Amino acid sequence: MTSVLLSAAIAVYSVIAVAANLAGPREPLLLLWLAAPLSTVIPAVIATRIVLTPRFPRPTRRFWAHLAGCAALCGVAAVMNIVDAIGGEEPTQVLSPWTVAVYGVAVLVLLVGMFRLPLDASGRGDRLRVALDGGTVLLAATVFMWQFVSAPMLEASGYHATQLIAVGFTLVLELVTVFAIVKVAIAGRAYVAAPALRLFAIGLIIGVLSGVVQGLTVDRPHLSTAQFVIPIVMICATAAAEAQLRATPAPPRRSTASQRSYSVLPYLAIAGVDAVLICVAWPHADLRVVLCAAVALAAMVVSRQITTMRENAELVDRLDHSSTHDPLTGLPNRALFNERLAAAIAHGPAAVALIDLDDFKTVNDTLGHGAGDLLLVSVAQRLSESVRPQDTVARLGGDEFVVLLVGVGADEASRTAQRMIGALAAPVLAGGHELLARASIGLADNHDGGDAGEMLRQADIAMYAAKHGGGSDVQCYTPGMAGAVAHTAALGAELEDAIADGRMVLEYQPIVELDGTLIGAEALVRWQHPERGTLPPAEFVPVAERTGAIVPLGEWVLRTACTELGPLTPVAISVNVSARELSSPGFAERVTRVLEETGVPPHRLTLEITESAAGTVAPLSELRRRGVRIALDDFGTGTSSLTLLHALPLDRVKLDSSFLHGAAGVLALAAASGLEVVAERVETAAQATRLAELGCHAAQGFHFAPPMPASAITALAAPSLSR
Fold first, then answer.
1. Angle at 550 between CA 549 and CA 552, to 5 degrees
2. 372 has pLDDT over 80
3. How far is CA 253 from CA 129, 247, 259, 313, 505, in A?
4. What's the CA gap between 561 and 357, in Å, rounded?
5. How confident is the model at residue 536 (pLDDT cuts 50, 70, 90)?
6. Are 310 and 302 a contacting pair, CB within 8 Å?
7. pLDDT tier at 308 (50, 70, 90 boundaries)?
8. How far is CA 409 from CA 401, 433, 448, 479, 506, in A?
């Protein structure tokens, strides 16, 4: 900014000096000319700084090298101009051929620099189109400037040889100006900052229009437009160089048709030539009809072409959008996200949130892809509403989304991720079904200097850690997380194979009245592992919860229990159901279908749930309306069990034996609510006696019987059947 102010001060001095000499020359005349060569030093120095800055790409540094050379040559030419003007006995405006030559070389250097600036064109056809557009504009500009600037200057000078050279030089400068303006529209702005190109073009326009004030110096040989025009032009050059220094280099980006506004320039050029034609031919009355017809015809053709151009631009925009955005949700796709992530990392702190929907495959499998698509669209909208405008929500594919959080650290990213979890908590209505959009989110940031690929890898690991932790959670990446995730994933894969290969078996723990009468049996799954032997549920059910395998495992347990006990005994069948199963789409329909296929009446099935299922009341209420019984398991071990007695549609409460000190109150509350109470994990006769004293009528545990196969349950049920 200091350099711009200094350049402006020099220009102001030049204008004041010329104004002071309008009435007549004031000695020494050298003071009139000092500003011109001095003003060229500043942009030459700043442009050289750009050339020596490695962060700018080669085309950028090459362009500014030409500008530095042009400014330096202008400075040399200005010094030679001073010698020509005041070096003789009398002041003169006549330039020596050598001075004109140096000015010409400066213009040539600038022209070459502009020509070498990469165009926003790809392929032979695109380059030809750009060349034709540029040629049209330059030809129209030549006609316009010849008619209104160059021809009048030659006529006024009597076609003197020196003036012919000066006029030719001015015309070339004018065309360079037009070329610069065209470059502003069609040059590759990834290499030269657009503000810099605009400022540079403005400076050249000022230089060209200086011919308008040339008449003020015709009868004042001690004055010249170069004295104040060069400093004014150099202000623009200095400001342009400063704008380039402040700009951040960015990789070239594909331009869309709507961004190529230069396509309008040829039509503006035609309009300009038509204006010249009208000015020249209108005085001839016999040509006016033809003139009007020609102009009207040109206007109609131009209008048609502009309409076609706009339609093509809209089509290209749509195609460009479809190549960078997901067609279902309208979010950016993987390619556009990676581009924005790389740019964000280059500018400072950033974080990535990788989001994967839990149990989405079940939605597609049970309700169809239409419902799944509606769920994805709803998730996209809710995620977009949860972040700031400068952040990016993208869909990577399937049910996987990713969010780029710009300029944030780990803490802010974690708060945003929790906000996303909250936004997804409300049910989504899709295809007449209420679906819960549970999601696992993994976070990673670039505080350790990782690149885009590494950040996504870390976020992916963290996301799987969140998923393996039960889902609907947020995990931030930490070193060493990959090993734990890999172990859980491997065990989860083994578990899915075990379900498919029939290595899972059921045992049943009897539920009895305190007098020993069998009234039901709870199904307990076992894994017959080929290397580790028979594994109890505690060894693999948590893994099934984390990996999502609990859904197919739960359906297998339900179907197997109904198949094994249904035709053998009339006792009630109790099956444990996880919160993840309840929230999976179509759960109530799957249970009903299993009951119909196995012939088990709904009232003989009891689904045992825990406190974690408190948020999934709808499927429980629906099943209870169909006759299925609902039991709250592990009562007394949680923190909000008493409130759940009224919040959930329950038939039974299973009281943990460790909660005997509060059993009297629970039994009274259960009786008032019309609920059955079953004491579980009863291990001793003393516990059974105390339960009987408190009025509890049913229990289960090793004091009565251990888990056993279905055939043993049948044997226990036989005495009950004989009574």
1. 70
2. yes
3. 20, 16, 12, 17, 60
4. 30
5. confident
6. no
7. confident
8. 20, 38, 11, 17, 49
